[in-house]
Amino acid sequence: MYSSLWRLVVGVCASAFFSLGHAQTTQGAYPSKPVRIIVTVPPGGAADLIARTISNKLAIALNQPVVVENHPGASGTLAAALVAKAAPDGYTLLQNSITTHGIGPHLYQKLSYDPVKDFIPVSMLAQLPLIMTVNASLKFDSLQDLITAARQRPGQLAFASSGNGGAPHMAGELLKSIAGIDLLHVPYRGSGPAVADLVGGQVQIMFDAAPSLRPHIQSGKIKPLAVANKRRSLLMPELPTFGELGYPGVEVSLWYGLMAPAGTPVNIVNRLNSEITKILQASDTSERFLAQGIEPMSGSPDQAATFIRQESDRWGPVVRQVGVKVD
Fold this sequence. Notes:
Blueprint: H1 2-27, E1 35-39, H2 46-62, E2 66-70, H3 77-84, E3 92-97, H4 98-107, E4 119-135, H5 143-152, E5 158-161, H6 167-179, E6 184-187, H7 191-200, E7 205-208, H8 210-219, E8 222-228, E9 253-261, H9 266-281, H10 283-290, E10 295-296, H11 301-322
Parallel strand pairs: 1-2, 1-3, 5-6, 5-7
Antiparallel strand pairs: 3-9, 4-7, 4-8, 4-9, 4-10
């Protein structure tokens, strides 16, 4: 009788425990409200396209709205600081970049976030190799033509960038250092106005990704000279790499990943990673990206962490070599 009563008590307790656990799991199921992806640039452009493509599909997978919020400024560091201080619950995410977690930590004297301690990687998203272009009126037919002219006219040829400390800025500084030439850097607030002045001839040179440059290349208003990548551009395979032209150190790609605030539960990070991997591997996603010169990336959170760490390690010595600092 005693054993029968004990089994009854155990069974009731186990049932109650299971019911309580199930209720807690249901109440705490992720996500139960909209998710925000904070983007470091204004609307429009490749970074915004990537974020909105991912968010639209992620909303379906999570059965919750996924809202893209643009927080430009200070080369993405303002957006990064916002997410670093957000609750670690999976509802506020950062589309990080080469600036926020590759170059920026070595450029800025003071950052209001720690790029390592304040975040946990979720996934890489995509990368875009930079292309060097010139205003067509210069009549340069090759990279060597430009380098020769720059040596003859030191400091007189200007290269535009989307802002101090960004990848296009650093690509120009790398070329200056490796080729031994003097170019004038002219920073803008975003790619749009920089490209407009390149087309208009106010500046002569610009590094940027294919989406913002390609329409003007096709119209003949600007001319591409080289791609800053180990391999040729998917959209312009006829364009040589800097390595092929004798300057192998000029390799710069815009890249984007997804980060969550440090302390975000591992199960949430893994859920997001799983859904994003499916999205990136879907044929319609890859086709849309590749049509814009965007190369999809994916992988585990650990692989994302390794990639970001390697990029940061790579850019530290480069920043010190070229002597660029941003207050």
